[in-house]
Design brief:
By secondary structure, the protein is α/β, with parallel strands linked by helices. It contains 4 helices and 5 strands. The chain has a single domain, classed as 3-Layer(aba) Sandwich (Rossmann fold). The two termini are 15 Å apart.
Amino acid sequence: MKWLLDEMFPPAAAVELRRLGHDARSVAGSLLAGSDDEQLYELAADQGRVVVTENFADYASLVAQDLERGAARGIVTFVRKSDIPTGSSLWPTLARRLDAWAAENPQPLPGTHWR
């Protein structure tokens, strides 16, 4: 699966996803850092990436706008960081959960999903 991890997640999670066989990019620590949500959503949709974020309000609104236009093409998976261990356990746990989600959803439909 192709992933785009939003800024609140450490780049190490993308590294671990790549180790697990995914195509993963991290916003944090990259040239994408500081980009607004709409830019990231459009980039991910254009590249066929699933956005991983905990920013429900903004991304749900972007998906809803797409649906209203009849052009739903973005895929967003919401993760609550509070459901994931903190510290050095965050990134491997996140990567394993996303890997499992990808196995369960090999061709996810555009829209919002929870993991």
